Amino acid sequence: MSTFLGTPSPSVPGQGNIHALEPFPQAAAHALRDTQMRRNVGHATHTIRTKRLRAVAECPDWEELRAAGSAIKADVMARLPELLRQLEENVTARGGVVHWARDAAEANDIIEGIVVATGSDEVVKVKSMATQEIGLNEHLEAKGIAAIETDLAELIVQLGDDKPSHILVPAIHRNRAEIREIFLEAMPGVDPDIAAEPTALAMAARAHLRRKFLSARVAVSGANFGVADTGTLAVVESEGNGRMCLTLPKTLVTVMGIEKVVPSFTDLEVFMQLLPRSSTAERMNPYTSMWTGVHPGDGPEEFHLVLLDNGRTNVLADEAGRSALHCIRCSACLNVCPVYERTGGHAYGSVYPGPIGAVLSPQLTATGADGTGHDDPNSTLPYASTLCGACFDACPVRIDIPSMLVHLRGKQVDAERGGLPGPQATAMKAAQWAMSSPKRFAAAERVASALGGLAGKDRTVSSLPGPGALWTKSRDLPLPPKQSFRRWWAENRDSGADGTDGEETR
Ligand code: SF4
To answer: Best exposed site among 170, 388, 487, 504 by fewest CB in 10 Å?
Structure first.
C-alpha cells in the first residue's frame, strides 16, 4: 500500500490505451476533413448541451452543489491513502477481495487471473473508462477470453471495430444509418431488413445482449464511486445493462481508478444530483446500482475490486494539476468545447477526449524527469483548446481546466527549451526593448511597414522568413495600418517632424 501511493507509476508500456498514436495537430487535421463525422458530432453536442442548460437551470442551488462537489473532491485528494485503506478494510470485511494495480499491465494480469480461475472464456462488461484505459479487452482477447461490451454505444463501437470518441456517448460520431450497416455486418442473427430507426436498432441489440447476460459467468465493471466508510461501490448508467452485469454473473470484477473514492455514503447525495444533470441532462439517473461486498443467494458470489493507479499518483504530486483527478466523467466539458465539436474525440488519440482529456491524459502518461513526457504525443493535448473557458463554466465539480491547460503548456515549454530562453521568450524580450523607447518603437513600426511586400491582398503575411516562420506556421500576421497613429499625430497635430522627440519628453 505504501509503495503503491509512494512511487510514481514507472513504465509507459504498462499504461495501456492511454497514449495517443499521433500528435493532436496532425490527428485533428485528418479529422477536420471528415465532414460526416463533424455533422454527427456537431448535431449531438448541440442537442445535449441545450438539454443540460435546461436541467441545470431547474436547480436553484446549482452553484452551491458545484462548490460542495469540488470541496469533497479536494478533501479526497488531501487524504487519499487514508480513504483507500478504509475502503479496502470495509470491502474486505464484507466478503470482497481488494487488489492493488500499479499500472495497466498489473491490472490486466490480475483480472485475467480471476477470469481464468473461474474456467470461463467470456466476460460481459459494463461501460468503463478505466478498463478502456488499461486496454483490458485487447489483453483478454490475446489470452483467448472474449470481452463483450453491453452498453449500446460501446457495443456499436466494438462491433464496428472502432474506438470510442466521447466519454458518455462513445459512438457519437456515428449516425443511425451507419449503425444499421455495422449491425448488418457484425451482429449475428440480425434481421437483414432492419430499419435504420432507433427503436429497431435498440431492440436488435437487446436480443443480442440478453443471450450474453444469461450465459456469462463473469462480469467486469468500472465504478463511478467507491464509498470508504461502508465499502459500497456505485455504478450509474441509463440502459439497465449495467444492472444485469452487476447482478447475474457469479463473479464480479470492478476496476476503479483510485481517485473515485469518496469519504462517506452521504457524499453521494451531492454527486447523484450533479452527475445526471451534467451528463445526460436528466433530473435523476435511470439506473443507479450500489453493492457492498457479497451476500449469499443474492447477486455475485465472488467480488473483486481492482484499485488502479496507472499514473494517478503522478498527477496527485502536481498541486496545480491534481484537480484533474476530481473529474466525475460527466462529459459536459466535451459538449461545450468548440475544439471537440469540430475534431471529434478520435483526434485526441487517448481514451479521455475533450478538455478533460487535454489535461488528464498528458499528466497520466508524463514520465520525463521534468514531469512532462514531452516526447509523448499526449504532450500536444494541452494546446487542443482555445482557452475560451466554457469547460470551466460547465464542469459540475468546478475544475479550472483553462488554468491547468496554461500550466501544462508552461511545463511543456520549459521542458523543451531545457532552461534556455525559447523563441517566444526571446521575441518578448525584443518587443519589450523596442517598446520601452519611442524612438525604437517608431523604428520598429517602419520595419513592420516594410513587411508589406510579403503580404497578400488581405494585408496579412502568411509566411515569414527565418525564425519568424515558426510564428506564421500556425497563424497569419496582419500588417500594421499604412499610417500609424503616432505618424498621423505628428503630421496633423504636432509641431515635431515625426512626433517622436516630443513623445520622448512627455
Ligand atoms: S472535467 Fe468536469 S465537465 Fe469535464 S467530464 Fe470531468 S467532471 Fe465533467
So the answer is: 504
SS3 assignment for 424-492? HHHHHHHHHHHHCCHHHHHHHHHHHHHHHHHCCCCCEECCCCHHHHHHHCCCCEECCCCCCHHHHHHHH
Distance 355 CA to ligand 1 centre (A): 8
To test ligand 1's pocket by mutation, which of 48, 129, 166, 331 has the most ligand atoms within 8 angstroms of CB? Answer: 331
**Ligand 1 contact via 396 beta carbon (within 6 Å):** yes
Nearest CA to ligand 1 atom 8: 330
Pocket lining: 356 vs ligand 1, CB cutoff 6 Å: yes
The answer to whether residue 369 scores a pLDDT higher than 50 is no
* Residue reference for cell 460501446: 154
Indicate the pLDDT class of residue 504, thresholds 50, 70 and 90: very low
| Domain encompassing residue 464 | 446-505
Greater confidence (289 vs 456) lies with 289
Nearest CA to ligand 1 atom 6: 327
Where helices occur in 15-128 by DSSP H, the ranges are: 24-31, 35-57, 62-78, 80-93, 104-118
The answer to whether position 5 is within a domain reads no
- Please work out whether the CB of residue 358 comes within 6 Å of at least one atom of ligand 1: no
Judge whether 178 lies within some domain: yes
Quick check: 505 pLDDT over 50? no
Ligand 1 atom having least distance to the Cα of 355: 4
Helix (H) or strand (E) holding 274: helix 268-279
